[in-house]
Amino acid sequence: MKVVVAANDTGAIKEVVFNRGTDTSKQDGLQPISVKNFCVEESTRTRILQMVNYGNRYLIASRLGGRVCVYDLESHSAEDVPDEDKYKLVHTYQIALNEPNDKSIALIPFEAEELVVIAFESGKVVLINMMDDFSKDDVRPIEIQLDEKVPISVFVANPYETGVFAYGGKELDVKIVKLFDDSINVKQNDDNGGFKPECLFSAKNVKNDHLDLRVPIWITGIQFLESESSGSYKLITTTRYGQLRIYNTLEGKRPRHDYQLCEKPVLTVNFANEDHTEVIITDTHTLMGKFSLTNVDSRGFQMHSASAGDIVKPTLKLLGKYLGGNTGATFGTDVVEDEMFAAAGLDRYFRLFDVSTREVLAKIYLGVEASAVLLLDIEDEEVEQQAEEEDKPKKRARKDTTGEDEVDEEELWAQLGEEEATKTTKKVKT
């Protein structure tokens, strides 16, 4: 297995090669095959925020400062390639930022359309053409500005309709926009190619709470669900206030369901099965749990209010937690083929779980905080039997040598005894 992790402490990419069952938290546990740093930067002020695998050809990373780096990924699996030739920098795009502290919040590949979409907090969306010849200057990134006055914190693509995206943020409820269609041609011209965001849906906040107070908005995660009819959308959102909401645009602007999952801010949300009826939620504390989107616990959430007394609300059923000694926020997650769930974050550990059984498949200390995780290979590495066979004769030799040492020690003690007896005899004669 092979995973790459974006290291916040160094700004580099840390590659870990390991097998199922690796556990560095145990003294006698299986150790990783290799842990190496690549793409090292001079400063952590250009650390990686997001990473994507583009067709197993390129590793694309969005860094602080508006840089989008394209690294060679085809050589990472070759055994005869030296380390200095792996993850080589192919090209760098420098995006002009709207504000000095602006940073990217999403990096989305579109392999069929041969482009990559990068979104920033300021609402700037950049379309980069992934051409084979990066030296061409006539094809430059296209910049689109969303019509928002507040920063956005999440931006995702609709996998069921090309060019449709959803986004939201602090005091900005979820919106669905269309930026382009299947006939997109990313070429820069005077009118910016006619790329203008078309608003398809704008959500409305939930009703006031039990104290008749407005419920605050802060979207942290969005996932699209498959819709039965064209022109309508289904999606789920998570918030910084521990909520999960389910929307169907055919049934209005307010969410169909509003569930309180936890009291801490939700950081990531991933689907846990092919039918998209289960999700994996992580928060800023220790939660890594799998929840059902169809089964509801009628008394799942309970709280006490000084004015209203005990309040009981229905919530999504918790199917189980992914345990592994996690302490701290989990920022980087990746689910591969609905089989494996990778997670890393504040506590400097990388963990790999079986999605269905929630069993810990690997636990590796990274030594760095992680902002993004990307599984490149889920197959176990072949164990070299030759090394094991070489170890066996050495063990036997040590055993035989130990026996010889024991004989030598007996002879040595016998000689010392004879010498001591001779000295004692001489003293008596004197």
Automatic annotation (TrEMBL):
Compositional bias of kind Acidic residues: 403-412
GO (cellular component) term, any one: preribosome, large subunit precursor
Positions of region (Disordered): 382-430
One biological process term in Gene Ontology: ribosomal large subunit biogenesis
InterPro entries (UniProt xref): WD40/YVTN_repeat-like_dom_sf, WD40_repeat_dom_sf, WDR74/Nsa1
Assembly mode: Component of the pre-66S ribosomal particle.
Similarity comment text for this entry: Belongs to the NSA1 family.
Role description: Involved in the biogenesis of the 60S ribosomal subunit.
Protein name: Ribosome biogenesis protein NSA1
Organism listed in the record: Scheffersomyces spartinae
Gene name in the database record: NSA1
